[in-house]
Amino acid sequence: DQSLVIAGRTFSSRLMTGTGKYPSLEVMQQSIVASGCEIVTVAVRRVQTKAPGHEGLAEAIDWGKIWMLPNTAGCKTAEEAVRVARLGREMAKLLGQEDNNFIKLEVIPDAKYLLPDPIGTLEAAQQLVKEGFAVLPYINADPLLARHLEDAGCVTVMPLGSPIGSGMGIRNIDNIRIIVEQAQIPVVVDAGIGTPSEAAAAMELGADALLINSAIALAQNPVFMAEAMGQATRAGRLAYLAGRIPCKAYASASSPLTGTIV
Amino acid sequence: DQSLVIAGRTFSSRLMTGTGKYPSLEVMQQSIVASGCEIVTVAVRRVQTKAPGHEGLAEAIDWGKIWMLPNTAGCKTAEEAVRVARLGREMAKLLGQEDNNFIKLEVIPDAKYLLPDPIGTLEAAQQLVKEGFAVLPYINADPLLARHLEDAGCVTVMPLGSPIGSGMGIRNIDNIRIIVEQAQIPVVVDAGIGTPSEAAAAMELGADALLINSAIALAQNPVFMAEAMGQATRAGRLAYLAGRIPCKAYASASSPLTGTIV
Amino acid sequence: DQSLVIAGRTFSSRLMTGTGKYPSLEVMQQSIVASGCEIVTVAVRRVQTKAPGHEGLAEAIDWGKIWMLPNTAGCKTAEEAVRVARLGREMAKLLGQEDNNFIKLEVIPDAKYLLPDPIGTLEAAQQLVKEGFAVLPYINADPLLARHLEDAGCVTVMPLGSPIGSGMGIRNIDNIRIIVEQAQIPVVVDAGIGTPSEAAAAMELGADALLINSAIALAQNPVFMAEAMGQATRAGRLAYLAGRIPCKAYASASSPLTGTIV
Amino acid sequence: DQSLVIAGRTFSSRLMTGTGKYPSLEVMQQSIVASGCEIVTVAVRRVQTKAPGHEGLAEAIDWGKIWMLPNTAGCKTAEEAVRVARLGREMAKLLGQEDNNFIKLEVIPDAKYLLPDPIGTLEAAQQLVKEGFAVLPYINADPLLARHLEDAGCVTVMPLGSPIGSGMGIRNIDNIRIIVEQAQIPVVVDAGIGTPSEAAAAMELGADALLINSAIALAQNPVFMAEAMGQATRAGRLAYLAGRIPCKAYASASSPLTGTIV
Q1: CATH code, D216
Q2: Which of C122, C163, C172 is closest, CB to CB, to B171?
Q3: Is A35's pLDDT higher than 50?
Q4: Which domain does D196 fall in, by range?
Q5: pLDDT band at residue A262, thresholds of 50, 70 and 90?
Q6: Helices and strands of chain A, counted as H and E runs
Q7: What is the ipTM of this complex?
Q8: Cα A254-A258-A262 angle, rounded to 5 deg
Q9: In this model, does residue B261 exceed pLDDT 50?
Q10: Average model confidence (pLDDT) across chain B
Q11: D217: closest chain C residue by CA
């Protein structure tokens, strides 16, 4: 299998995780290790404002091993997101990742479903690409929007499976399949995955990677779930490479039973 | 996690595989190893009649490490199945498993969908239990039938997810969930699983084990798929123990954004 | 379209309804009319014991227009069901349907999911056929059990879509499809349907008729829902006859756009 | 029930149909009548260029009874769509609908899946609203895009269920539900519906209307299917008003069986 490459950087794990919602920093640390992930996303605004559960968070992760993916959670407009992205780059530098220009772009005006704004996201992406960012935009699973973002120079697209934290799984699998089929950049399914089976399903249809936060952090046993998600991500990738059997409406016996012994 | 115990015998793997449909004995051997399985089912009639692909099959497996699960594939009536079960016990003894009285009971009068006969299956199970077999019956996912079989002394029930070899996945998940909820014996989902995500889904809802043959043997790369199925089975089990997040219709943000930095 | 024929009797409506759970007898009466149904099932035990809501129930329906389908709800064993069936025949006679030997056979030992017992159902069906009943058994969607019941002389099979009153819809559509494909007697989908779309879906796959009670009686507006269910049953049947378009993974434009005007 | 009102114009049918793909003009005419629809969409470019099957098409419909909905099918950019919309307005006038300023806006750069471009669609919509059109844009089911279009002055939004002509049904039901919940203008589900059950399902979740073309025109019997789609649309609307029963994981018996007669 070829490794995941984003903006020229190579990763061997195809699972990304987050830092929000964990019961404690210790559980977060252990879960990150158990998942085997190499990329962790951090909400810039929450770290900067020391939102509940975010104090000491940035320092609790070994950024020598984990690649930081700052995100613009909490931004409602393109303008806000661009400003927070710049702060994110500073944060990464302060934490020792001098060459880290990654930004997970979220432009979310809607508080109930946390769905991203396609217009504001494209606008912010165009600006951030100009400023030299490696932009990973969070989007509704719209194949045409994905193409616009790729044309604008984004380094991945991150379609959602279902609303953030909902645990509803992949509810728009056809559109994600089309995005995977058409994109020349990695497709990272982000948001909505609740179980390892859903993680595996996304990988089986050809997604390049996953980002999972709530399903791990809010599981009854986050560390177990983190390990399970890591396994399922690998299993799904391996199955994608292995080539599944076709679905048939009828049964298929193991072999003809021409002889008889009874 | 507690191990899987069937008829007093302990297994650490929760994935069982088969021997049919592989492109070669070598691929079968490697796939069994890659899957990490400890139980392999063998069609007694096919071995006895040396059906295509079954010559040398029984000898190709290391029965010092793998527990044999003889099956009555190809039997259309209870009577036939009982006779083949007895032959299966002899076969296991000849291959060195003196104390193996396991039998996977299949009574399948229907050639198109290979669906099991509930009446014949119950009748054969009652007879085989009397004769000292540890009976693992293959059944449609009918919770009341499962209860009759448990009452009759079967050591597991093996509800199908969808027709054998169809790769359609788990198409009756509610009934399987009810069987899992009610059974005091292990529930093994058997038939229909096509992908690791489907394997994980069955384990997440509390199935005790899985039996997967076609999806591995007929994958384009059986060895990769075997490994993926083993991983997914473990991931699904781990997730079941970890306790998944609830599904919600709405989104759930990582944390309140009361402060502001922009 | 050919009419529905059960045990030699012809019906033009393919929707059957029930009498339980309505807010009042008046609403029940209006709902039956709005649905356009010609067959109504009545729980013999509930009428005999004057269970809450069942007083005056049998008299509230115009049995000159509606064909009574007595049912054995509340019976846990074959023996009980046979006795209640006999009482049902008497009840039909008393209410003026001298030649009515129909019985909806329910053998339900399980109080939580109200799932039928395949063994007890087959046993009772064999006895009731001997006694001259036209037997319509309520069953789990097991194609092999359906075949046994047809062989035993039943005049329909009535597979459930999901547990009684659950409103979960058709959760085992593949098995129902196989039953429809194989049966020579009418297939009536019974239990679980919650919405007109689910009613239509069952008819589109070739079911001959539907029985719907809770989804009508417990709707906020039972009369509206009864009318909707009647329409949907007809729509689904008409679509079955009309022949649907195939599903495709890709789009299909209305016509080539060779010319150009802009 | 309140009628459907679009741009101040009232319609009693909630099903819209099209003119493409019919085997003949006669079958088209009969199907339109059988469906009971009051709005029919016409591809302006196909009529103007007399594409195969479109000669005489505009004249074959009684525009005294049917409201024309010209569409911009075949337009790949906002600019093209605006020009074709203007031609559509002329066409409606020539055919006697002097006050018809409706336009179904399609901006579709993609030939394989015929998915709409969110950016080009919004741009064209803004221009057409300025020019006094009543704009009904065809969109991917993106709630935030729907809000932008409503803010821009569109008179409906028309989210797709699945790709045009695919017959895959409603494959993104959560997003459509959110659009319905948030929109102040009618939501018309357009594209992908293959069966009456899918039509009813869209109406049950609160869609205001449907547009169905391929599923009728390409059915084996288009006239039957047209009638079925009309019934199902009404059934789904009625069920929405009636208020469905909740889904439960367990069964619910008709009434307590406290008494006993056996």
Answers
A1: 3.20.20.70
A2: C172
A3: yes
A4: 4-242
A5: very low
A6: 9, 10
A7: 0.93
A8: 100
A9: no
A10: 93
A11: C245
Q: Say if A185 falls within a structural domain.
A: yes
- Torsion-angle region of D5 (φ positive above 0: left; ψ -120 to 50: alpha; else: beta): beta
Q: Quick check: A173 contacting B, CB < 8 Å?
A: no
User: When comparing pLDDT for C52 and C106, which is higher?
Assistant: C106
Per the domain annotation, does B261 fall within a domain? no
- The tally of domains found in chain A comes to 1
Distances, alpha carbon D222 to alpha carbons C202, C208, C238, D57, D216, in Å: 20, 22, 11, 17, 5
Q: What is the pLDDT of residues D244-261, one digit of tens each?
A: 999 887 777 665 554 444
Residue D188 neighbours by CB under 8 Å, 6+ apart = D16, D136, D156, D157, D158, D207, D208, D209, D210, D211
Residue with tokens 């640390």: A29
Strand ranges in C72-202 using DSSP code E only, listed in sequence order: 102-105, 134-139, 158-159, 188-190
Residue C262 has pLDDT above 50, yes or no: no
Q: Which of A113, A173, A174 sits opposite D143 (nearest CB)?
A: A113
Which residues in chain A (181-220) have CB-CB distances under 8 A to chain D?
none
Instruction: Sort out which chain C residues have CB atoms less than 8 A from B118's CB and list them.
Output: 118-119, 142, 144-145, 148
Q: For an interface test with A, which of B50, B115, B255 has the most A Cβ atoms less than 10 Å from its Cβ?
A: B255
Say if D251 falls within a structural domain: no
Q: Which candidate in D104, D112, D130, D248 is catalytic?
A: D104
B177 touches chain A (CB under 8 A): no
pLDDT digits (tens, 9 = 90+) for D160-169: 998 888 889 9
Q: How many CB pairs under 8 A join A and B?
A: 295
Nearest CA in chain B to C113: B178
Of B153, B144, B231, B211, the C-alpha closest to B185 is B153
Asked whether residue B82 is domain-assigned, the answer is: yes
pLDDT tens digits, A214-227: 999 999 999 999 99
Please state, in angstroms and rounded to a whole number, the distance separating the CA atoms of residues A177 and C6: 46
Work out the burial of residue A79: count CB atoms within 10 Å of its CB; fewer than 13 is exposed, 13-18 middle, 19 or more buried: middle
Closest to B117 measured CA to CA, from B86, B140, B150: B140
Alpha helices in A41-195 (DSSP H): 44-48, 78-94, 118-130, 143-151, 173-182
- According to DSSP H, which parts of D154-221 are helical? 173-182, 196-204, 214-217
CA distance D152 to chain A (A): 13
- The verdict on whether D248 is a catalytic residue reads no
Q: Evaluate the CA torsion angle B124, B141, B67, B165 in order and state its sign.
A: positive
- Average pLDDT for D37-60: 85
- What tokens does B180 get? 């899992």
